[in-house]
């Protein structure tokens, strides 16, 4: 197979499917964590010594964890095929490297998820969480990076990218876009830390921090600090995304669909804030909590995609 940089419909569709599948994996992981099923099986890579463990189709905790493991296996196979396909068919070195980076990340994620199970009983002096429980945090954060890498690959092999019909963005648009990505990544890191420290309900009222309506919490500990930082960052992101969506829409040199991406980002952030409020108001509803995690990952990946597309010329020009 000769390497070219021409549009390949099969590769483009496969990359798009891989980008979509990552959210199946995120949703199952979020659901598993929300119902506390991460240790439904105490072994790994098998589940109770089997690829088809007893009870996984009838017991919700086993279903959640084993489905997450199976979906991770499918994600790994998709990434292997994608990396090899890019290596054999794609002439652009940066895109081939992204394929191998995606494969490296998904392998590391699998190992990280497995060691989280195996190290769950290992106590760490001075901490409330075991070593295995601590590993849930980098596992959740790295999943966000992986989703962005898959979106970058899908963008790079897409028809609009290959045809160079995206238009050109100003320096202001590109800079603010990267700031939004950085803020969202920081927010999701705070969220993962908060979630796995059981701080999701550390402040049980919203939008105020006390039943009396005060802005600041009446008492502080590290869980309250995590929860308050998460809320403060959400407000900052809301302003940043609104500004980014506004200037993106006014950027007449960009393709209309790319300009409209700013409106999508505003809608996603609005939905995310409403879901966060519903978590507090419903006492951490499973549906709302899982949806909040999935929409958060989708918001970061979509923002990254929009920013990545606006930098098409500089990315291709650097190769």
Protein model, in words:
By secondary structure, this protein is mainly α. The protein has eleven helices and no strands. Helix 3 (93-118) runs antiparallel to helix 5, helix 7 packs antiparallel against helix 10 (286-310) and helix 9 packs antiparallel against helix 10 (286-310). The model has no long low-confidence stretch (mean pLDDT 94).
In total, how many domains does the architecture comprise? 2
The number of helical segments is: 11
Main β-sheet description:
none
Instruction: Using the alpha-carbon principal axes, give the shape.
Output: globular
Through-space gap between termini: 22 Å
- Which structural category fits the helices and strands? mainly alpha
Helix content estimate: 55-70%
User: Roughly how many Å is the radius of gyration?
Assistant: 21 Å
Q: How many E strands?
A: 0
Poorly predicted parts: none
Strand content: under 5%
SSE pattern: HHHHHHHHHHH
How confident is the prediction overall: mean pLDDT? 94
Topology:
Layout: H1 9-34, H2 60-89, H3 93-118, H4 131-134, H5 136-156, H6 159-163, H7 171-196, H8 222-249, H9 256-281, H10 286-310, H11 312-317
